[in-house]
Amino acid sequence: DEPSWIHWSFFPHKVLRKRYQSLLIEHLKEKIQKELRSDMPDKDLMVFSEPSAMKGFFDDLKKEYKNGFFVHITEERKELKPTIGYIGRYARRPPLSEVRIKDYTGEWVTFEYKDYRHGGSKVLHTLKTIDFIGRLIRHIPSHYFNVIRHFGILASRVKKQYKEITDRVLESPPEVDEAPN
């Protein structure tokens, strides 16, 4: 009956997916509308000049991804070298360069990638625009994205200190390795 302390390391994944989706869509709408109001709007965004087109596009996106957009959450990494390599790859270049997009019709996107499962040969792949964007946005950090994965009380360098403080305040709670699922 007594409340018990549960040690935690990460936020619940399911909660983040829908929230991330709504915030990203809201941010995209704002950016598209701002671009359309500019003196020289991007011609590829002109398809969104009709409010019904933008609404339809984002409604389709929400229907396609009913559970929200993918949010990558993993346990704390023990090896730093691979982590530094991962951060470096995305800090230096985008997940897909413009040169690799070979064709865009408004409804379909054709892009090129290396198929390392078959010797690194170049392969052309065509997807519906909505699917292409869905796959691509998984890799694009937002404008204010902090490369450091956790901050505040979740930051690796201070998490132990905060845990010690909360343990003292809560009079040494029982040791629990993981939060229940």
From TrEMBL:
It holds the Pfam family Y2_Tnp. Residues 9-160 form the Transposase IS801/IS1294 domain. It comes from the Bacteria. GO terms for biological process: DNA transposition. GO terms for molecular function: DNA binding; transposase activity. This is Transposase. The lineage of its organism: Bacteria, Pseudomonadati, Pseudomonadota, Gammaproteobacteria, Candidatus Kentrum.
